[in-house]
Amino acid sequence: MFKILVHFLLFGSALYGISDLPLLQQEGGKLWCPITGENLKEHSNSNFIAKLHNGRIRQYSSYYGVYSDEKNYGLLKNSIKYYDKKLNKFFDYKKQASYDEERFLKETTYRNNIKVKKYYKMGEKIYQSRCKKNEIDFDMFFEINELKYYLVSENICGKLNEKYLHPLSVYLWDVKKLGLTQNKNSIVIHDDEKCPVCGMFVSKYPKWATKLHYTTTIFAFDGVKDLVKFYFNPTKWGSFPNTSKDKVTKFEVTDYYTQHAIDGFKAFYVIRSDVYGPMGNEFVPFLKEADAKAFMIDHNGKKILRFEEIEEKMAYELDTNGR
């Protein structure tokens, strides 16, 4: 009896569920959230549905998925509905002002931390030990729920219950398909690293962290504005040999929306918005120009710049006349 129980816990089908939750997405991945990959029946208390502009129904494990789709793709007006577990029915949902961009970003950071600390490591072990690697073509899948359905329906990694299937799927989606790794996912900041411009500990402000890598040393900053001041005139802030602009080997900034480390030379920067960093008004960085434009509209930004357009004086102008 004990062996049977252990076998079920380890390898039970991911398709088992005890909720009566209606699954309204198209076949193939309908059991999982297309944004988070979470099992919808395991999150029936927080389920939502909505329609994309093409009329396709999407079902989410929480409002986090709704907000993400609305921001990235757009949803049909009045199409958002929430699930009432007691009545086993979806009802119209009125948007709550309490769930805003700031809350979404905090949840994104929280979810990313879980991925890095747990899911990636656990998923890689399962992938290396159980999966038929040559039978996974990642270009086949548009969303993570489609990948999960394929893993289960084709028995790619054997029978796994959700406890193991989810970390595996997150690892495959983020690392193998999207190319994220623990180091690429966010800028690594050590507890003792201080900004050479303002003197604050950068680890307290991970969502604003930036780094300049030189041939012989690395500097961390608690925002792009301080980095710009240092980049153009490092000697103003102390005796730092070999820190001329031609000695920079790598420049990392944190994408405001995804919280991923991105190439600062290739980023898009929004200035004079109503979003403030630890040092006040900032150059807010984005990997995608579309995200920068959306942010500028949502937060009253005044201009989008590429790094080659930024001048030293602009950093000080943000200090004295941020808006």
Label the structural class.
alpha+beta
Weakly predicted, low-confidence segments: 1-18
Elements, N to C (H/E) = HEEHEEHHHHEEHEEEEEEHEH
SS elements, strand count: 13
Mean pLDDT: 89
Q: Specify the biggest β-sheet.
A: 4 strands, antiparallel
Radius of gyration: 23 Å
Q: DSSP helix count?
A: 9
What is the oligomer described by this structure?
A: single chain
Number of domains: 3
In angstroms, what separates the terminal alpha carbons? 69 Å
**Considering DSSP H and I runs of 4 or more, what fraction of the residues is helical?**
25-40%
> Globular, elongated, flat, extended or rod-shaped: what is the shape?
globular
User: Which range does the strand content fall in?
Assistant: 15-25%
Can you characterise this structure?
The chain has 323 residues and is of the alpha+beta class. The protein is globular, with a radius of gyration of 23 Å. Mean pLDDT is 89; it is low at 1-18. It has 3 domains: 17-92, no CATH class; 103-182, no CATH class; 186-320, no CATH class. Strand 5 and strand 6 form a beta hairpin. The protein has 9 helices and 13 strands. A 4-stranded antiparallel sheet has the order 2-1-3-4. The chain has helices at residues 2-11, 63-72, 101-130, 144-153, 162-177, 182-185, 224-232, 289-298, 312-320, and strands spanning 48-51, 57-60, 81-84, 89-92, 210-214, 218-221, 248-254, 261-263, 268-271, 276-277, 280-281, 284-286, 303-306.
